[in-house]
Each structure stands twice: as C-alpha cells, then as structure tokens.
Amino acid sequence: MKLALSLFAALLVLLAAPTASAQSRYPDRPVKILVGFTPGTAPDLVARMLADRFAEVWGAPFVVENIPGAGSNIATDRVAKAAADGYTLLMGGNSSLVINPSLYETLSFDPVRDFAPISQVFIAANVLAVPPELPVRTVAELVALAQAKPGKLSYGHAGVGTSQHLGAELFKYMAHLDIAAVPYRGTTALMPDLVAGRISLSFANIVNVLPLAREGKLRALAITSIKRSALAPELPTMAESGFPGFEAVPWFGLLAPSGTPNDVLDKLHDETVKALAMPQLRQKFDELGLEPVGNTPAEFAAVIRKETPEWAKVIGDAGIKLGN
User: Fold this and answer.
1) Domain range spanning residue 159?
2) Contact between residue 129 and residue 213 where contact means Cβ atoms under 8 Å apart
C-alpha cells in the first residue's frame, strides 16, 4: 500500500512538472501586445517601449499589434477571449475598461471578470486644440463662436467612449453648445483634418498636439487634466478656463486574460515596474507628457472598480449616448 501511494505521488509530480517548467520558462515564444488605437498614439508608443524592454530582458519577441475601432472594444474583446497563458496581452485604457460599460447596452467582455490586471502604466492628458485659422485664442472665445454658430462647428474624436469623445461631450454639456461629432479611427487619423480646418476642434492627446502647436499648425487652448502639465506650463486647464471640476484624461495599463498563471502575471508586473523606473524611459515619458504609474495588480483593479461608477454618472448627467 505504501509503495502504491509513493508511486502515485511520484506520478503526480511528474505530471505537474511540465506545466511548472513551461510557466517558469515564460516567455519561450512570441508574445503579442494588442493596442486598440492607431500607431503613433500614446498607448502604441508606450506599448512598444515595454515590448522592446521585455524582449531585451527575456530574449523572446514581443510584438505590438494595433487593432483600432469601436472605442478600443475590438482589441479588448480579442484579449478577453485569448488563451490565458500570458502570450496575448492588452495595453488597455479607461475607454474600454471603465467608460464603455456605460455607453454600450451590451459588451462582449466584462472588464472585471475577463481580465487580470498587471499594472497601470501611465496617465496622459488631452489638449483642446483648434486650427490656426479658427478665429479664437481662448476657450471663452471658442464658446462664444460656437454659441454664435450653433451646429456649424465640429469636433473630431478618436472613437466613441474615448476620453477625447467624452471630454468634448462634457464640454458641450457644460457650455450648452451644439457642436457636431466626427469619429475617427484614432488620434493620428484625425490630425490631418484638424490641421487643414476640415474639423473645428478636438480634445486630442498631448503627444499628438504639442509638436504641431509648436510648429504653428495648431493652436492649443487648454489642457484637460486637473493640474497644468510641466511639458506645457503655459497652457491653462479647462477648470481654469471657466469649467470647474472638468477632467477628462486617458490612462492605460497592461492586462492579461483572466486565469493567466500568477507566476506569469508576477513576472510581467515586476518587469513593468522596473522598466517604468528606468531613467531613459522616464525621459521619454517626460518628452511625451506622460506620467508613469507602475502600481500593483490589486491597486490597478481598484482603480477600475472606483472609476466605473464615476464615469457612469458623468455619462448619465451629460446625456451622452452611443453614437454621439
């Protein structure tokens, strides 16, 4: 009997060994990081920074795959349905994880149930920008122009449910404006039309706006964060521009499908935090106007739980509906 039990125990060890070994070797093949926005946007740039670092540390390819559309729901859904093995990751933002549940009647994924948070990576800010030909230099002047021409101005956004979309809708609600929405497949897609004046304004990402504003191709009016940005301290906040409490900022973090082994999650988290502490990466973040985070999986999960009802209230109070 004792011999049989010993043999059984040995068999269990042998059966478990390949799984444990496979997990400890992670990653031993290419890993995909899906981004729900176009190349050149902040989440894309940061995902590529992390991918390069991970590949350097672990010697396996990390490939960034851009899948824009539907407020980043398409990319988010693909990761939710991917194998829980750490080989398909998401650079996910508050658009799909905390905002879209209040915009869509149904979603094909559950932001809490279907994902294992790894770490919140960065917080960014949007900038209210207009073409230089538009005869306004302040937010107050823009409001006056929009009030004088109801329905004549338009704004571009990077997708329904993005902070750019909600920022513009919140602006319209607080100022009682009639401005038409024009959706695009990401910020970089709308910038040519904004520069050319084919759309009147956009709450576009600071990464995309500042270089063009400094070249005189756009005029930046205000920033959407609570505090001014060190990257452009001359820009007032929307709150300082007559809209107290106004805040509409995107954040992004790294997530895996729910059920991914804890040791894989721990490995990804630890290396993400190390990467975010690197001076060269922090310098790049500063140049892009991004604030690195690097919190724990539990803290990241708490952010999602906290902000979901908060944005639900904003969306409800502003009367924002899908397709606006």
Assistant:
1) 126-223
2) yes
Where residue 259 falls (left for φ over 0; alpha for ψ -120 to 50; beta otherwise) is left
The total of structural domains in the chain comes to 2
Encoded amino acid at 52, one letter: D
From CA 242, how far away is CA 99, in angstroms rounded?
Answer: 25
Together in a domain, 218 and 278: no
Side chain identity at residue 5, one-letter code = L
Which pLDDT band holds residue 24 (cuts at 50, 70, 90)?
low
pLDDT cut 70: percent of the chain above it:
91
Check whether residue 119 and residue 256 sit in a common domain: yes
Cα 120 to Cα 3: distance, rounded to the nearest angstrom:
51
Residue 10: inside a domain, yes or no?
no
For 35, what's the count of Cα atoms within 13 Å in the CB-facing half-sphere? 24
DSSP H or E stretch at residue 88 = strand 88-93
Q: Is pTM beyond 0.85 here?
A: no
DSSP state, residue 112: T
User: Which tens digits make up the pLDDT trace of 251-260?
Assistant: 999 999 999 9
| Mean pLDDT, all residues of the chain | 90
In whole angstroms, give the CA distance from residue 206 to residue 18: 47
Asked if 104 and 131 sit in the same domain, the reply is no
Which residues, listed in sequence order, are joined to residue 126 by a DSSP beta bridge? Answer: 205
